Amino acid sequence: MALTLTGCDQQPQQPAVTGGSPVATPGEIVVGQYGSLTGSEATFGQTTDEGVRLAVEERNATGGIKGRKIKLVTYDDRSNAQEAGTVVTRLITQDKAVAILGEVASTRSIAGGRVAQQYGVPMVSPSSTNPTVTDIGDMIFRVCFIDPFQGTVMAKFSHENLKLTKVAVLYDKGQAYSTGLSNYFQQAFKEMGGTITAVETYKGGDPDFSAQLTTIRNSGAEAIYIPGYYNEVASIALQARKLGIPNSVPLMGGDGWESPKLAEIAGEAVEGCYFSNHYAPEDERAEVKEFIAKYKAKYNGVTPGALAASGYDAANILFDAMGRAPSLSGADLAKALAETKNFKAVTGLITINKSRNADKSAVVLQMKGGTPVYVATVEPPKK
Amino acid sequence: MADSPTTTARPIASIRARTLQLTPPRWVAFCRGAAPIVIGVALAVLLQFYANRWFGGYREKILIDIGINIILAVSLNIVNGYTGQFSIGHAGFMAVGAYTAGFIMYYGSFWLFGDTQFHGGILSATTDPRGLHGPGFSGGDLLFPAALIAGGLVAALFGFIVGLPSLRLRGDYLAIVTLGFGEIVRVVIETTGTVLAGDEIGGQPWYRLLNRVGGPMGFGGLPIYASSFWVWVCVAATVLAAYRIKASTMGRAFLAVRENEIAAASLGVPITRYKVRAFVIAAFFAGVAGGLFAHEIGNMLNAGELGFLKSFDIIIMVVLGGMGSISGAVVAAIVLTILPEALRSVSEFRMIAYALLLIVMMIARPQGLLGIHEMWDLPYFRRRRTGGKTA
Fold first, then answer.
1. Which of A87, A190, B231, B364 could tie A75 with a disulfide, CB 3.0–4.6 Å?
2. Could A38 and B341 be called an inter-chain contact, meaning their C-beta atoms sit closer than 8 Å?
3. Residues B45-102: pLDDT tens digits?
């Protein structure tokens, strides 16, 4: 009787002892990923998935985590929030994933994140920028900057680098992303002593912007901030030039501009324009060069976009935390993730802050000859 | 039953006596009427406490999805199946119910309990391995059904407003109007402002908060109340109501409208009135389903997903199950919810396989799984009910 009791007492301590030593443990570590592989935002999920798969392959080639290989289980949520919740439940309860990677769109990150939080499994979102995502709880992390920061990036850049004082704003009032960036930009720009000469709105799908652009032209703005998506931005740029707003008045925007389609449609009209993004493929840092080379080798020479880089970073930060965590339980893993400091990621030096968001720099790109070219890096505010 | 050939010859008094004799005592009739509700609630309680233990969290979540889809399919069946109207705006009513219930649960929780968190007891608790749910019974357990019913009523009101002028239309024209309604609901919701956090709500008049339901970003932060219990109680209520309606005078009128409007009108059936009724009843249950959908675990209410594609998902269930068949709609809702999940192993080809199955199904059985029949009308069940003799 006494023997069996002591035997039972010792058992819980055993995993902690073996977990600390680099003894190879049989069995794979299951990491779950969910994303929009099909549906309206299929490209988001697919490119992120490419980055994540690259990171997993690399990690497994170098011995995995403490000798255990990583098994990536990916499910498609068809760009649908209800399904995102279902697949995260499946990843956790059926596949026994120890951590979850996903999603790009904030609504689906919230849907899946609430499930992960309830089951106490850490989740790392590669590129959901809406501030509310990580408010869900202590299990939800992200490796990208949030909208308030991205809004201030352009304000800082236009004020300090371009020395502008008068800027007009034109945003999509039907998009939370666009409205958010516009608000944060205006706030920051005014605080720096600049003037917002005009604030105009449009709605996704509008064909004509001449009324708004005429007002902006007459307001004497030195630049126009348009935090929209590339398709509308392209037609706005074309119409602006037609209305006689010269290329010396640059248009500025956020990561919604990132698409080869922008230069394809707008051509000369967006020449010399600036936008903020998560990373620049032209960045000279070793991590970026190495990542691009590996990515091109694996995916037929395609240059990775910001979403692929974010997916790669999210996976690597998670694996790094797994390597440091004393065990793979949700609490230990979340603690290790929260302690991530100055991680040399492709998208910049990443430190996870108290609200489980990433403190990281943003880059500003300029359109030159139809391709975005790296201009500057804007650091996060030091608090 | 009674030997009827001679009834016409019998005096009325004799018929009345015979009817009285056949009518069961009041308490038996009451028990018979109440039985489905009692069984339904008992099943819901059973699922609430054991579904997670028996099936695990994933399957419990799918069961909840199935429940919500059953409510949607069975309610749409009242319009598209019984009455033969072609409504493709069901998701619009669902959205109205979802946002109404969400508004009540989010802001109502703040006014009643002081914050916007979960305040339910054991009946509203969803899968929760860490046991965060409250004990026994608490205020949220009353607020949630009230919010569901309110969501249903507001959706029904919208059904009435939309139905009154547009149900004088037929066929394609009506379909376009309902499609337009669904899109209007979605667009209006998407123009609203962001949801206020707890500390910002205090002091705001309620009507100003109506504009604070999330817009394009979705209504985040809704407490999770849609437990197996509430979902399956609502399923039981919907199926029972649909069954009773089908067997009633109203149901007969619906079917008459479907079969031939002119014949029905000449028999004295007010066509527009019955169409509006069907519409209002269906909208009510769609609103209830929306309320459950909004408070489901692992979901984030956003109007973008309640567009016409969602309406088509529901229509597919009704058509596949068989227009007018309640049990058909139930079976189709179950099959079409499980199928995409079961096909996950073939990942990329999943939606192709799903679509192929639908095409094959429609070629093989264009009238749907059960046609206009009910499962209990099938020969197998019929024989058992009448004790071996087919009627």
1. A87
2. no
3. 898 888 888 888 899 999 999 999 999 999 999 999 999 888 999 999 999 999 999 9
- CB-nearest to B297 from A90, A106, A115 is A115
pTM above 0.90, yes or no: no
Strands of the sheet with A140-142, listed across from one edge: A70-76, A29-35, A99-101, A123-125, A140-142
Looking up tokens 């720096």 gives A192
Q: Residues of A with CB below 8 A from B299's CB?
A: 81-82, 85, 111
In chain A, CATH 3.40.50.2300 covers 27-145+285-352, 148-277+364-378
Confidence class for position A11, pLDDT limits 50, 70, 90: very low
Domain A148-277+364-378, what fold?
Rossmann fold (3.40.50)
**Cβ contacts of A352 within 8 Å, gap of 6 or more:** A141, A317, A337, A338, A339, A340, A341, A358, A359
Confidence of residue A346 (pLDDT cuts 50, 70, 90): very high
Model confidence at B135, pLDDT cuts 50, 70, 90, reads low
Q: Mind listing the pLDDT tens digit for each residue in B353-364?
A: 888 888 888 888
- Mutation pick from B299, B305, B341, B344 vs chain A, by most beta carbons of A within 10 Å, is B299
Check: CB of residue A228 under 8 Å from CB of residue A253. Answer: yes
Q: What is the mean pLDDT of the segment spanning A264-292?
A: 90
Cross-strand bridge partners of residue A141: A124
User: How far, CA to CA in Å, does B203 sit from each of B107, B112, B192, B285?
Assistant: 12, 14, 20, 34
Report CB contact under 8 Å: B350, A76: yes
Domain ranges (residues) in chain B: 37-309
Note the pLDDT of residue A6.
35
Least CB-CB distance to B299: which of A85, A132, A174?
Answer: A85
Q: Could you say which DSSP state residue A270 is in?
A: G
Q: Are A322 and A337 in contact (CB under 8 A)?
A: no
Determine whether domain A27-145+285-352 maps to CATH 3.40.718.10. Answer: no
Q: CB B298 to CB A89 under 8 A?
A: yes
CATH of span B37-309: 1.10.3470
Q: Do A176 and B216 touch (CB under 8 A)?
A: yes
**Integer Cα distance of B60 and B368 in angstroms:** 28
Place A86 in a pLDDT band, splitting at 50, 70 and 90.
very high
Asked if the Cβ–Cβ distance from A132 to B224 is below 8 Å, we say no
Shortest Cα–Cα distance, B58 to chain A (Å):
5
